[in-house]
Specification:
Layout (H helix, E strand, L loop, with lengths): L2 E5 L9 E7 L6 E2 L4 E6 L4 E5 L4 E6 L6 E3 L3 E6 L2 H6 L8 H16 L9
Antiparallel strand pairs: 1-8, 2-4, 2-7, 3-6, 4-5, 6-8
């Protein structure tokens, strides 16, 4: 059975990380799709992280009171092939690509031409 990652979601436009304050499940627990399983705290609020699909908790990879960045894997759900296929997990966009593209464009403008990087 496929293992689907439980990912720290983007919790707000300017929020880059959150601290785990409660883990509501343990390995072996059966979970529903979109079930709240982990509470995380930012500098603004406490929010719940939900399961990406129904299945069984395979493992939780985080610790209470530890801080994790957006996009971090918090654990895994063991799911059926069908449920895993319906999950649309994609890694978050990396800011490093945006910075690199900005520097390339800035350097290009300095030489009298402007290009648009559509990566």
């Amino acid at each position: 059975m496929p293992q689907v990652p439980i990912i720290m979601p983007q919790l707000g436009e300017s929020i880059a990380e959150a601290t785990v304050v409660d883990i509501k499940v343990k390995p072996g627990d059966v979970v529903a799709d979109d079930q709240e399983i982990i509470d995380v705290e930012t500098n603004k609020a406490v929010m719940g992280v939900t399961t990406p699909c129904k299945g069984k908790i395979d493992r939780i990879t985080v610790q209470l009171k530890e801080t994790y960045p957006v996009g971090a894997v918090l654990g895994y759900v063991e799911a059926s092939e069908e449920d895993a296929a319906r999950t649309r997990w994609r890694p978050p966009r990396s800011c490093s690509h945006e910075r690199r593209d900005f520097h390339v464009a800035a350097r290009t403008r300095a030489h009298g031409r402007t290009t648009i990087n559509n990566r």
